[in-house]
Amino acid sequence: MASTPAKEQKLFINEVQRHQARYRKLIQFTHSSTKAAGAMLLAAVVALIVANTGAYEAFLDFWHTEVGVFFGDGFAGMSLGHVINDIFMAIFFLLVGLEVKYELTVGELTNIRQALLPIVAAVGGVLAPIGIYLAFNATNPETAHGWGVPTATDIAFALGILALLGNRVPNGVRVFLSTLAVADDIIAILVIAIFYGHSPSLPWLAVAAVVLFVLVLMNRNHIYSLIPYLLVGAVLWYCVYMSGVHATIAGVLLAFTIPSGSRVNIKSFLTWSGDKVREARSAYQPETPVIAQGGYIETVQDLSRVARQVVPPATRLEHRLYPWVYFGILPLFALTNADVSFLGVDVGAMLSSPVLYGVLLGLLVGKPLGIMLFSMAVVKSKLASLPENVNWFHMLGASILGGVGFTMAIFVANLAFPDEGLVATAKLGILAASLLAGVLGFVLLLLQAKAAQKRGVAYLSSSADDITRQTAGDEAAREAEELLRDLEDPAIKDEVEAAKKRGGVFEIAVDLGPTGLLGGGSIGDVREAVRNEVVRVLREEGKDDLLEKVQEEFKEHAGEPPLASVEETLLRERGEDALLRAIRRESDDVVGMSGGKGGDEDEPRD
């Protein structure tokens, strides 16, 4: 497990504890799927409100403002809207590419048998919406080209909705949906590159290929600094932009060239870092201010410099990009692209448009239908199986969430339709379908979660390698860690340790009982819950000697009342013999009431 906040705080001086706590909360906030989805939703709502007020014209004028650089009388630039859609969204695609590369390298897409279910489901989730869209638009040359709009799932919104359910949903649902969304993104990237670019300029494509070859050479020659990749990546973006292929594809190409390995020999580093720590310990002088300890500072700087390079460049870049993309770029994209205006528009024509129904039903019906049918086919053929603890109702809920197509769908709509009216109609279909799919998917999974809660089941998942990625459910993993810290059941702890040895993301199902606290409501369950709580409190208070005695008493007096073992141990420590005898009398009474040999009712009480 990752280090706990309490352990982490001990690394810092008392004067900065509050700063560290605030910083830790900020990091958790900016790596939250739920918060990211909320930020995008808020931006979309603001865009919808503004688009239907008198401020809409000024709003549009602002995003059409030209920005750029002057060279004498020359000017190179683009509008703010194009900066967001062409430059910022290329950064978003860079992050998508890094996540795809992770999944292909060490994630869910490495094991073809594990990945087969979400990959096949993703194919079904693309083909079915295309079929539904073309059923409405195939005969109309003006709208038929929009078939790509309802094909992509918005991973941020879908996982953000799923994160609201926490550990009440099996981790397999989360992994299935995130892997499906990644496979979906790969298909969407190919669709954009092949079908939704302008007529490509072959000379610029040739230059882009040369730049890409340079990036590959950099990777092959073990260049691990990020700055050269980003600088050459900017050149690649410009070449792709000038070629007529959509510039965002440059972000994906760049992602696949950034090294995912470490320049540091990990085995040697473990020995070297241990030596450096011992060297720093011997060089440290407690009575001397740190600033005056040259040898100590030099040793620590060496350790810090090399330790930073242990983390692969792809991982470093992904972690840095995540908060900027999900709390900056995507909300900006929503703000500039979710502006469906009904002012001066023939609403009747919009509501009767085949584009609206092709997009709406493609996402809301086609995505879940395709995902479920293809999933059933691959499971029934025994080529793959459902994830652990996942049933078909979970799969249906996840499939419906696949119909949340906000970001990528709007992006494709902007590319697919030259007419602004058709773009607005497609956006209306996207927003309506995403809202309905999000609500329906959440409600269905919530009903499954309620059923699991009635059975007393929670799903605890975490990462054996201390890397809990957003796509693996970072928030659910944090909840699981907090709950696992409070559980002292040896059987559960053994299961956790066994699962951790298997590597990767693991999950166990824990019986929390109908109340969410106890197993099944029996005396034995109450006794176990009391033991867990007492052990937790004594451990927090640092009473390790007493902790051992309490645990021994629990083992020796397994059939006695829940509190007897605890109180008896505590009273022995205090020498209160009278109360000790009373507790023993309580034990006899309970045995008698349960049908065993009870005490004599006429015997005087102490």
UniProtKB/TrEMBL annotation:
UniProt protein name: Na(+)/H(+) antiporter NhaA
One record GO biological process: regulation of pH
Native source organism of the sequence: Gordonibacter urolithinfaciens
Record keyword Transit peptide present: no
Assigned protein family: Belongs to the NhaA Na(+)/H(+) (TC 2.A.33) antiporter family.
Gene: nhaA
Signal peptide region: none
Transmembrane segments: 36-55, 75-96, 116-135, 147-166, 173-196, 202-219, 226-243, 249-266, 324-343, 355-379, 391-416, 428-447
Record's keyword terms, sorted: Antiport, Cell membrane, Ion transport, Membrane, Sodium, Sodium transport, Transmembrane, Transmembrane helix, Transport
Cross-referenced HAMAP family: NhaA
Catalytic activity: Na(+)(in) + 2 H(+)(out) = Na(+)(out) + 2 H(+)(in)
Compartments where located: Cell inner membrane; Cell membrane
Entry membrane topology: Multi-pass membrane protein
Principal localisation: membrane
